[in-house]
Design goal:
heterodimer; A: 280 residues; mainly alpha; globular; B: 443 residues; alpha/beta; Helicase, Ruva Protein, domain 3; Coagulation Factor XIII, Chain A, domain 1; 6-stranded mixed sheet; 4-stranded antiparallel sheet
Chain lengths: 280, 443
């Protein structure tokens, strides 16, 4: 039907109520470079006009780690046969990744209101790139962990190959909760106050200062519902030569919770997305 | 004729207006409160907060038109006629409530110049970021990079953060990126009204070039000269409906007539809860409407409004320059403790502002009624646009222009500067003659 002198047939786009879903995932792929650019912007801007720049990405987890090591020392929690700083740092890393990614992604839509009301692109890109830029910080801090391992002469075992799995789980969890809260934030600004609470509360119910194994039974099952428990245990298991043995039941619960949060988050985000520009 | 490139059929967009003075979003607190106090009503309302003054507002209603390949179509209409909503739907920023649009080809839309520019980033970095946001590939940006830089005339400042750019440089760079998009369909909103004359000419040239290369352009403008010269066809929107669709010259004519008739008192800026600003005109001493303001004279803005007699409301006026930067404010309440009439009805007033030495260029006026410090009642952006043709603050032939970027308000001296001899020891003198001092330091 198209006989115009064009080497490619022009793309056809139909806009109507409720039709935006059709091209969505295709568009997400087409705009993939934008994820890169927004991530890059977030990372560059975060450290511009700061005195020590990227060193912040090292300083924050390092200080957190020192506080927790000292705390464990004061309270007299028994050693685990692994150098204490390594033991704590292996948990601080995923926790910091989660808290940064969650905080940034949940506030990302509001922070990019100008973009949302002036240009089209799949909105998922915004919280997504916030998560990716938190991963950049994570990777920098991971270098510090590697350095610590060299200092303590502690080589990881074969378990380390599973690390990407737990990294993906942490990303999936923060993306799921991040997009959910970001979408809710557009409609109800109350959720601005929910995120700091989640981050603060989560720090105490995640096994950073303690190990899951030391938690007595009825509570241990309950605590497994916190998906960060499985992720942090997983990180330790990978980095510390399988140190706390993997609790497969607990892991399964964690993965299920993460998956449901991710599905719920993306579903709600997609549902609300078409009205973002009108509401924000 | 071949298939239309843009086909708009029966397009409509409904907004729900809450006549409450709060932002568009709702607080969960209100939702919970309404759910707790009247659960049944809450369920029937489908979770929307109870509000007795919700009202449907159709920003667009039954809009249909088509645009053929290579055609340049202008959309004209008053503020609030639905132009921006139409462009937002065509750009996929917001969804229509009813109807459909079919677009054939790659679309680029430019609703604002410099969307996504980040102040902390350098010119170079912003070219990449903005290009990506507008839908360009990294490869494509790299290929056109030099061209963009040359077009924007920012070679020397490429590695300077854009927050240190002058507003003119900023606009040039931003437009340069947008001008190098290569879509089959280009959608442009009012970008031509910003920047200085030279910049505007450059933009017009670029748009002409785009349309000559066979691409389809759809643009919104208040600049009737641009509409006539760029487009062959225009659609006039009035209150969300297509009032006219035909040759640009006729459309401009029709629009101008409509504007005049609307000035007779038709409500088209909407209204607030208690008041409605209906009309604003720049007037001269004898009350006749004028389009130009003569710098150095009192600035007189005549405002017609309606009020329901609510006590304590203020009428405020904001003066903005061509890039919508606020220059100043006039307020009946804050400055003069005068509030709107306490009896309901239609009123007219003239705000007469002290003589201003505005630089030559374009200006806009925003008007608002407000309960001071509590809420805005009716805000009308761009209620008025006027121009200062020439500005000679000291009475010399030097024309002080907005585009010089020396500011929009000239500060002529009360008396001619006197140069008095001074020695280093004088610096601690408690009250120096400021006028003379400051000037002698520069010179």
């Amino acid at each position: 039907m198209n006989e115009r002198a064009r080497d490619v047939r022009p793309e056809k786009l139909v806009i109507a109520a409720g039709l935006s879903a059709k091209n969505y995932w295709h568009d997400l792929w087409r705009y993939r470079e934008l994820i890169y650019f927004l991530t890059w912007r977030d990372v560059v801007v975060r450290y511009k006009q700061t005195l020590i720049g990227v060193a912040w990405a090292l300083l924050r987890p390092a200080l957190t780690m020192i506080v927790f090591v000292a705390f464990r020392g004061f309270v007299g929690i028994d050693g685990t046969g692994v150098p204490e700083p390594l033991f704590v740092f292996a948990a601080v890393l995923p926790w910091q990744l989660f808290s940064t990614a969650l905080t940034d992604s949940s506030g990302s839509l509001i922070g990019n209101a100008g973009l949302i009301s002036k240009v089209y692109f799949p909105r998922l890109i915004i919280p997504w790139s916030a998560v990716v830029s938190a991963v950049v910080d994570f990777l920098i801090a991971f270098g510090l962990l590697a350095a610590l391992m060299v200092v303590y002469g502690f080589a990881p075992g074969w378990q380390v190959i599973a690390l990407p799995v737990f990294l993906l789980l942490a990303m999936g969890l923060s993306l799921g909760m991040g997009v959910l809260l970001a979408a809710l934030n557009v409609q109800y600004r109350d959720f601005r106050y929910v995120v700091p609470f989640i981050v603060q509360f989560g720090l105490f119910v995640s096994p950073i200062a303690f190990t899951t194994a030391t938690v007595p039974e009825p509570w241990r099952t309950l605590i497994a519902l916190n998906p960060m428990v499985g992720i942090i245990d997983g990180f330790r298991w990978c980095i510390l030569r399988g140190q706390p043995t993997l609790d497969f039941g607990g892991q399964a619960v964690g993965v299920a919770v993460t998956a449901s949060l991710l599905l719920l988050g993306v579903w709600y985000f997609r549902r609300m997305e078409r009205s973002f520009a009108d509401v924000i | 004729m071949s298939d239309p490139v843009i086909a708009v059929e029966g397009l409509g967009k409904r907004y729900r207006i809450r006549h409450q003075q709060e932002p568009g979003y709702v607080a969960l607190r209100d939702l919970l409160a309404s759910a707790l106090t009247s659960p049944l009503r809450w369920i029937r309302r489908n979770g929307r907060p109870a509000s007795n003054s919700t009202e449907d507002f159709w920003a667009l209603e039954d809009v249909s038109f088509t645009v053929g390949p290579g055609e340049v179509l202008a959309i004209i209409g008053r503020n609030g006629a639905g132009k921006s909503t139409l462009l937002k739907i065509l750009s996929r920023i917001t969804e229509p409530t009813e109807g459909r649009v079919t677009l054939l080809g790659r679309v680029a839309s430019l609703l604002e110049v410099g969307t996504g520019f980040h102040n902390e980033l350098t010119g170079r970095e912003n070219i990449y970021l903005n290009g990506a946001i507008l839908g360009m590939r990294r490869e494509e940006i790299r290929r056109k990079f030099d061209e963009i830089v040359a077009f924007g005339e920012v070679e020397k400042f490429l590695d300077t953060p854009v927050k240190r750019y002058s507003s003119g440089m900023y606009m040039r760079l931003a437009f340069a990126v947008a001008a190098h998009l290569e879509p089959e369909i280009l959608i442009v909103d009012e970008v031509l009204s910003v920047g200085d004359m030279e910049f505007q000419r450059k933009c017009l040239g670029k748009m002409e070039q785009v349309s000559k290369s066979g691409r389809t352009v759809l643009f919104v403008s208040h600049n009737m000269a641009a509409v006539k010269s760029l487009s062959t066809r225009a659609v006039v929107l009035e209150s969300g409906r297509v009032a006219f669709d035909g040759p640009a010259v006729l459309a401009v004519d029709r629009y101008s007539r409509y504007r005049e008739s609307a000035n007779e008192g038709v409500r088209s800026w909407g209204h607030g809860l208690h008041t409605a600003i209906l009309r604003a005109r720049l007037v001269d001493r004898s009350g006749h409407a004028v389009t130009d303001y003569t710098a150095g004279e009192p600035l007189r803005v005549e405002v017609t409004f309606e009020t329901d007699g609510t006590a304590g409301l203020s009428l405020d006026l904001f003066l903005l320059d061509g890039v919508r930067q606020k220059l100043g404010m006039a307020s009946s309440h804050h400055f003069h403790d005068v509030t709107l009439p306490k009896n309901a009805g239609l009123f007219r007033t003239v705000f007469e502002v002290q003589p201003l030495w505005l630089a030559s260029g374009r200006y806009r006026v925003d008007l608002a009624t407000a309960a001071p410090n509590v809420y805005w009642d009716h805000v009308v952006e761009d209620a008025l646009e006027f121009q200062v043709v020439a500005s000679n603050p000291g009475g010399l032939s030097y024309d002080f222009k907005q585009s010089l970027n020396f500011g929009a308000i000239a500060l002529p001296l009360v008396s001619l500067p006197r140069w008095m001899p001074a020695s280093p020891g004088d610096e601690i003198e408690p009250e120096p003659e400021y006028g003379a001092e400051a000037i002698s330091k520069r010179g």
